[in-house]
Design brief:
EC number: 1.3.1.91
CATH class of the largest domain: Alpha Beta
Protein name: tRNA-dihydrouridine(20/20a) synthase
Radius of gyration: 20 Å
Low-confidence stretches: none
Distance between the termini: 38 Å
Cofactor: FMN
Pfam family, one: Dus
Number of strands: 8
GO molecular function: flavin adenine dinucleotide binding; FMN binding; tRNA binding; tRNA-dihydrouridine20 synthase activity; tRNA-dihydrouridine20a synthase activity
CATH architecture of the largest domain: Alpha-Beta Barrel
Number of helices: 15
Strand order of the largest sheet: 1-8-7-6-5-4-3-2
Number of domains: 2
Mean pLDDT: 92
């Protein structure tokens, strides 16, 4: 049975990131942290309903707890996609109200839905009703878009989605500037405003409020957890994934022994062997592991071997084994 998410206490999550948090990335991250909630890339509701569900939604049992993030703005389609997600065993279904990409805007969902809180609430209500005994339905949003006042836009959205049945709200603590900034620029140019998220939590003490955006370390995450219920790490977890080895103890209070990195690499090497045997490519796995030894002597060699050798014909898990041999001495010196 899927693990139950606990929205009553502190929680760590790895953010949904397009083109990054695929099933191979999630399998890797689960080797580093047993407690963090993992999220899929955003999947459009139409694709869930009409597409290759095994490819889009298939998961490994080890990934739990894992959430499916949906994109869309049609309550009926989102409800159907939620029913399908429940059948696949997802532990949470999250509605994207924060992605600023042009493609998402053209489909009338993502961050532009910050302007339509009543529609978002109808979507959440339909999703929650679609699988009443299924996974909790949650929202991930920005604090506002363009000229919106976050004190109005964020708080109005939160009130309405809570009334619609959302069990948690994850807030990326930046505005999305849909007029004038690219999606990449929207990840770092709009200033962070963590305090407005803290005020949202104060306004809704009985609702899980999580925070996301620009959080680079476990120390920063712990500071946020004194104000809100959950912290979502994004690029820091992806580019420097070894920070996750201490996350269970530092943020969740469990797991007094950090994962053994050599064991993690060998597990991923075997996983890569199996993936290649099933017709996949080694690079589809190893690309998520390039930053594993950031800051360790030999990390450059690790990166070079993965980048160069994993794309060669016949590449398999041995690429990871060779790369680890190049960094092993540096790890011993750092111990």
């Amino acid at each position: 049975m899927p693990a139950d998410l606990n929205y009553s206490g502190p929680q760590l999550a790895i953010a949904p990131m397009m083109d990054w948090t695929d099933r191979h990335c999630r399998f890797f991250h689960r080797q580093l942290t047993r407690r963090a909630s993992l999220y899929t890339e955003m999947v459009v509701a139409d694709a869930v309903i009409h597409g290759d569900r095994a490819r889009l939604l298939g998961l490994n049992e080890i990934e739990h707890p894992v959430a499916l993030q949906l994109g869309g703005s049609d309550p009926a389609k989102l409800a159907e996609a939620t029913r399908i997600a429940a059948d696949f065993g997802y532990d949470e279904v999250n509605l994207n109200v924060g992605c600023p990409s042009d493609r998402v805007q053209s489909g009338a969902f993502g961050a532009c839905l910050m302007r339509e809180p009543m529609l978002v609430a109808r979507c959440i209500e339909a999703m929650a009703a679609a699988a009443p005994a299924g996974p909790p339905v949650t929202v991930k949003c920005r604090i506002g878009v363009d000229e919106q006042d976050p004190e109005i836009a964020l708080f109005d959205l939160a009130r309405q989605v809570i009334e619609g049945g959302a069990e948690a709200i994850w807030v990326h603590a930046r505005k999305a500037w849909l007029d004038g900034l690219s999606p990449k620029e929207n990840r770092h140019i709009p200033p962070l405003d963590y305090k407005v998220v803290y005020r949202l939590k104060t306004a809704h003490p009985d609702v899980f409020i999580g925070i996301n955006g620009g959080i680079k370390s476990l120390e920063e995450a712990a500071t946020h957890l004194s104000k809100v219920d959950g912290v979502m790490l994004g690029r820091s977890a992806y580019h420097t994934p070894r920070i996750l080895t201490d996350a269970d103890m530092a943020l969740c209070g469990v797991g007094d022994v950090a994962p053994d990195i050599e064991t993690v690499v060998e597990t991923m090497a075997r996983y890569t062997d199996e993936h290649v045997a099933d017709g996949g490519k080694a690079s589809q796995v190893t690309r998520h592991m390039v930053g594993l030894f950031h800051g360790v002597a030999g990390a450059r060699s690790w990166r070079q071997i993965l980048s160069r050798d994993a794309v060669l014909p016949g590449a398999n898990g041995d690429v990871l084994r060779r790369a680890f041999a190049s960094v092993e001495n540096g790890l011993r010196a750092a111990a």
